[in-house]
Amino acid sequence: MNPLLNTLQPYPFARLREALAGIHPPAGVVPVPLHIGEPKHPAPVVITDALTAALPELEQYPLSAGLPELRQACADWAARRYGGLQLNPETEILPVLGSREALFAFAQVVLEHVSDGPKPAVVCPNPFYQIYEGAALLGGGEIHFANCRAPRFLPDWSQVPQAVWQRTRLVFVCSPGNPSGSVMQLGDWAELFALQERYGFVIASDECYSEIYFGGNRPIGGLQAARQLGRSNKGIVMFTSLSKRSNVPGLRSGFVAGDAGLLKAFLLYRTYHGSAMSIPVQRASTAAWNDEAHVVENRRLYQEKFDKVLPILQTAFDVRLPDASFYIWLKVPGGDDLAFTKTLWQQAAVQVLPGRFLARDTGHGNPGAGYVRIALVADVETCVKAAQTMAALYRR
Q1: Which of 268, 291, 314 is the last residue of a domain?
Q2: I need a labelling partner for 191 at 20 to 30 A (CA). Which of 41, 55, 148, 369 fits?
Q3: How far is it, in rounded angstroms, from Cα 94 to Cα 29?
């Protein structure tokens, strides 16, 4: 067996199941799962129709590079979304089976395997999406964290020692962030690009929540920021997905874009890895990237939930509207996020995720401790009812 498998930690949801084992919610109360970020809005008809129509094409092997029309649809969407950003669909776009598998696989391409001497370092935010850590460890790297603290909940890169930066090969960023929904602004990108120029690492920009925002405040993307700052996309790869944007997590479809040299190597890896997207899924994905009406409606539904849920929660908790995403990063009374989670489950059958499970202990503490992540993915009525129950428990 690969000994690096022993370095992996249990996934947050496995830790949650263990933490709640033996704790029973009130009898007769329907559980409300707000702990997992799985979109529940209906899949758009424009996507399901395209998928159904293309089913006869299951008889064909797909190419790892994807259909030209899908790559063009991705490039066209990026140009519309990011202020005229120009990407070559032949060399700077690559369809992937959702951002999760692509983030993991990309690290395997970028990291050098070292038999002697220090391992290549990978830096990521803390709290973070656990795939970053797993990708780094199984790629033979060493993970280092930059804690995210209030009020902005963005990575404090100054916490990374210079000796670590000098051997850093890859930096994961997530904007809008998971779990806080915080968005990197142009100045934040400029700070990261300055570090990249000094130390020469690759940036993997996870932007899967980019289309869930409020009031027209569209989050800036990594490639867009580079363009606005007069930089090329060298050393930068953006990861995005249809799962959240289009409510099709089961489609397993997204794309990566950016540095043509990195994507050439990534395509070679994926050709051997067998990561080609089926042609019906490519047809459905093309339809999805070409249609914006369903995305506008999706945002409206999330906006409605936040508009109704936040005023209720604010009667009992210190909580605010995130910059983007469908998460609430709630500061718990008393500071014990695990005890808070257990109480909610036992007394109200509401399931949330303790922030400490999304972060790691560091010399600067665990920045997830004292918070819980709430995913507003259920229907409006369910989210409102859960918020009322939570507020009633903690207004006492």
Answers
A1: 291
A2: 369
A3: 46
pLDDT tens profile 176-192: 999 999 999 999 999 99
For residue 396, what pLDDT is reported? Answer: 61
Q: Report the pLDDT value the prediction gives residue 240, as an integer from 0 to 100.
A: 98
SS (H, E, C) 284-317: HHHHHHHCCHHHHHHHHHHHHHHHHHHHHHCCCC
CA neighbor of 94 nearest in space, from 214, 265, 267:
267
From 291, 324, 341, give the residue that closes a domain.
291
User: Tell me, what CATH number does 195's domain have?
Assistant: 3.40.640.10
Cα–Cα dist 311/246, whole Å: 27
The C-alpha atoms of residue 394 and residue 141 are separated, in whole angstroms, by 43
Domain that holds residue 212: 45-291
Query: 190-242 pLDDT, tens per residue?
Result: 999 999 999 999 999 999 999 999 998 999 999 999 999 999 999 999 999 99
Lookup result for tokens 């990978």: 122
The Cβ of residue 111 has, within 10 Å, a number of other Cβ atoms equal to 22
285 occurs within a structural domain = yes
263 neighbors 273 (Cβ within 8 angstroms): no
- Return the C-alpha torsion angle 381, 35, 373, 179, nearest 10: -110
126 with 216, same domain: the answer is yes
Pairwise CA distance, residues 30 & 285, whole Å: 35
Cα 170 to Cα 160: distance, rounded to the nearest angstrom? 13
- CA 371 – CA 180 distance, rounded (Å): 10
Residue 59: partners with Cβ closer than 8 Å, 6 or more residues away: none
Q: Considering its fold, how many domains does the chain have in total?
A: 2
Residues 136 and 269 in one domain: yes
Tokens of 357: 């499970």
The single residue listed with the structure tokens 């210190």 is: 318
In this predicted model, what pLDDT tens digit does every residue of 328-358 receive, in sequence order?
A: 999 999 999 999 999 999 999 999 999 999 9
